[in-house]
Design a protein that fits this description.
The chain has 224 residues and is of the alpha+beta class.
């Protein structure tokens, strides 16, 4: 009799224990773990917040660039186009860039490439347009030849590009941008601009790297 009572007690304990395990397992599957859709929504919110922060940072950077350009342009009586013309008169060739120094020296630095690919750094006073110096760049790279190749067949030179960009503010820098389809890139007191090598059309410059990052973020969200 006692043997039967013991066996019944053990069986009841086993049933109770099994029920507890089953209940715990069921709770773990359906109650405790978050749903995949909830995780995806949370990730989307984080991505949107990051996008807003990046956009705000970009606006702040653009404002800082405009303020810096305005500071550079202050007191410069000679335009970028005039500085390029003066540099080419001293050193005939192809101008590929002109930049107004931001150290307060009121000097334009114009890069001129000769037909053989050699580069010359010509410094022009931003006050009266006089050429201050002409130094050959002997760094040994092929940047000059690369720039000449990118400009082959173009109809808009650096001086003309600077004149076109001046419609968008005072130009403080003009440079050949050959990352992708070559264009003249101008920085003015109102932002950054592209000038087409053929038509001279001026359009807003966009940071390709930033656009690619944004596109990758969107694609990642779509894949989720």
């Amino acid at each position: 009799m006692k043997r039967n009572i013991v066996l019944a007690t053990v069986a009841a304990a086993a049933l109770i224990g099994g029920g507890t395990v089953a209940a715990y397992a069921g709770s773990g599957d359906d109650g405790a773990s978050p749903r995949q859709s909830d995780i995806r929504v949370a990730d989307d919110r984080d991505d949107a917040s990051k996008d807003d922060t990046d956009a705000r940072d970009d606006r702040d950077d653009a404002r800082d660039d405009r303020e810096e350009a305005a500071s550079q342009a202050r007191g410069a009586d000679v335009t970028a186009a005039e500085a390029i013309a003066a540099a080419l008169e001293r050193t005939p060739g192809t101008a590929v860039s002109a930049e107004l120094d931001d150290d307060g020296s009121r000097v334009w630095e114009v890069t001129v490439v000769k037909a053989d690919g050699t580069e010359h750094d010509v410094r022009v006073s931003a006050g009266d347009g006089k050429v201050l110096s002409d130094r050959r760049d002997d760094d040994g790279d092929d940047d000059g030849r690369t720039d000449l190749a990118a400009l082959k067949g173009s109809t808009v030179d650096a001086r003309e590009a600077a004149e076109a960009a001046a419609a968008k503010g005072t130009v403080v820098e003009i440079d050949l941008d050959d990352d992708g389809p070559a264009v003249w890139k101008a920085e003015t007191t109102k932002g950054e601009w592209n000038v087409d090598l053929e038509s001279g059309a001026v359009t807003a410059h966009h940071d390709d790297a930033g656009q690619d990052d944004d596109r990758d973020d969107r694609n990642d969200r779509d894949d989720d």
